[in-house]
Amino acid sequence: MVEKVLERVDGELDRSIDRLFDLLRIASISTDPAYKDDCRAAARWCADALAEIGFEASLRDTEGHPMVVGHAGRGQPGPHVLFYGHYDVQPPDPLELWETPPFEPRRAKSADGRDIIVARGASDDKGQLMTFLEAARAFGEVQGEIPLPVTVLLEGEEECGSRSLEPFLAANADELKADVALVCDTAMWDAETPAITSMLRGLLLEEVIVTAASRDLHSGMFGGPALNAIHMLALIVAGLHGEGGRVMVPGFYDGVGELPDEVRAQWDGLGFDEAKFLADIGLRAAAGEADRGVLEKLWSRPTCDVNGIIGGYTGEGSKTVIPAKASAKFSFRLVGDQDPVKMAENFRAFVRARLPDHCTAEFIRHGGDRAISFSLTGPCFEAARKGLADEFGRDAALIGCGGSIPIVGAFKRRLGMDSLLVGFALDDDRIHSPNEKYNLSSFRHGIRSWVRILDALKAIGRT
Amino acid sequence: MVEKVLERVDGELDRSIDRLFDLLRIASISTDPAYKDDCRAAARWCADALAEIGFEASLRDTEGHPMVVGHAGRGQPGPHVLFYGHYDVQPPDPLELWETPPFEPRRAKSADGRDIIVARGASDDKGQLMTFLEAARAFGEVQGEIPLPVTVLLEGEEECGSRSLEPFLAANADELKADVALVCDTAMWDAETPAITSMLRGLLLEEVIVTAASRDLHSGMFGGPALNAIHMLALIVAGLHGEGGRVMVPGFYDGVGELPDEVRAQWDGLGFDEAKFLADIGLRAAAGEADRGVLEKLWSRPTCDVNGIIGGYTGEGSKTVIPAKASAKFSFRLVGDQDPVKMAENFRAFVRARLPDHCTAEFIRHGGDRAISFSLTGPCFEAARKGLADEFGRDAALIGCGGSIPIVGAFKRRLGMDSLLVGFALDDDRIHSPNEKYNLSSFRHGIRSWVRILDALKAIGRT
Q: Does the domain at residues A2-200+372-460 carry the CATH identifier 3.40.630.10?
């Protein structure tokens, strides 16, 4: 029976791609208020797509961008699953590095000869969320209805801190609570090996604005005795990492545990190629903690990165100015029991301690979430494993993820619901970077994997 | 006889201000190619103004912005003087800090109750160059002609490295060579005390672009092992200054001498108020070399400042990116025999030495000039002293200047010509900063001082 649905997926693939392109054309950049209407348009597009395939779908307003909620398969046997994805995307800057405009999706060949789809959001997360919508569509077209109760929740603030998420879950708990959440925002182990993600790092986002003198100064007239805001900020950034790549914020490593031996063994068995990983991004040596491997640093060690800096004159040519202000954006990846609230306090104290008392620092918090990890047992987990193994002809790797997916913590906290993290992105998808892409095979196997997983979940019966 | 000219100046002052406002309305930002036409328009305006007051004036094309050259008073007795000013201005950024648009000049009252003119270029250098043009105009209107041979040279690249200057001087040496250059681009000691500047710091401008990874990376997917370009650049900026505020570039202090005792004594006698100087710019302690006084740091010590920095995401909100590139603009103020060519080499080596070998640094040179100092003797110097003392009722202070005026070195090198640096700016003019202003009294006394100085120069007779 599932074979017919899978055939339908393959037969309809070009039309599935067309629909994905429609969604990719909408510049739903959630962090920038200038794109508010585009975010709403993307939400509307998703709601319409859900309605078209038989979901009872609606846009739900929030203080930020709207949520999309859809329901189908009520009364069907099998566990009730909630699928989560996000329709918002990262800003495309730096624009000049895109080979073609970021919101004009195109098919192309990658350097290694694979078919790819290029656009902002192709992988993160529009391509991924469309794998599920297209699987649901194929079920509807072949079987008349999706074979188990499904709720779809699509968010529009994943790339800017997910501020509306917890209030929305709290206010709609009864409607949204399901037996398990299927979250599609993660990667495969490699192009041939599917993966289930079992650990996610947390995230703290902080912006700092340093003020030195009361105004910008001429470097001839004031250079020497005048304090330079960029210099102050550079001292802070440079001081964040100490010997051996350790982060110097006091208390930074509170709550960071060592990896259990069995997890370390499983990761060691993945055959991760550190040199290739680095070479792929143009590097020959790893940054960060000197005594840790690359995979461990990515999945289970905390970080502190500066994501943006600006101060003084940044146009063409030169300007002999001593800037009064300079600002930087920081992100902290958290693991274990690191507490984002405490971390923010420690970071702010660290910054203030490095400024003379006639300098000031302002702080802006852009969001924070703890790290999370999942149990790897139970019928839903087994259904996902089986669906992926059947589709790819090999077992899914059980991996960590360096990124943060705030929804997963919120599902647990607000709805007492566990998540299954299954995604089809690849490490070379250039998500958040120019020329983001999604492999056509990720898209196709993704759709087919959801068909198989839904089929396997249905077989569980109501839990 | 000169009294009639001075009366004319005062009677015509409102019209002089109107003319200055016309010039201030032209956004002649030389460093930004987008304002090329505005620079030409400002040059054209100056040439027309010179023609109107009896100069044989023309625009001279260069590889950059045009020069304006005018001649008058040929055949008159007295030394031949060349007046220099510049019609280009600094970019007005940050625009949002201007109380009114930078190129819409207005009269206002300062906080301390003085009449001021507010606009980009009001002081640096349009207001200053207009003091001379208005003095020449008054002579013409009262006496029919300027009383000695005068050449006017107005440059349009002073704020962006003066690249065309030396070739232009070399190509037009016969036409431009005079007995002395009068350069009006410096400040008074205070609002009541005129000054002649006898030392100028040199200037080296370098831009650095650091590249780490081959593309921007997601801080979740790559954070930990991935090198961050902003972090690399921050380490360089932070490492430029060491203990006691000394600049750590190897060889940086080569050619820096100690101040002669008599100069130090004269400066000490000026009664400079360090605390007030710092308080005026919102600071309570001086940066830079710990063992040097503020005036010494400003006039006779070298500096290294970062004038601009940018990297990663700098828009609203946050972006969890590890930037591949980051860049910064640096200015070095030079003194004594410091060599800008050698300095640039040393700086570049310093930067490269701080980067891992899989990081690259690109460099852009935006100009460089040695420091310069003048002899304080001779009839022209005495004429300037007398003119200023007569106008202000007190002796001119003989001061240093932390800024750089590349023309002065070029005049010496190319034309064997000494310069007299007399200007009427004030330290609180906010040149290069938002809300730049020029005191109305600077403008009026400036015009009247040039009338007196030209009159005193005429009395010398042909040298």
A: yes
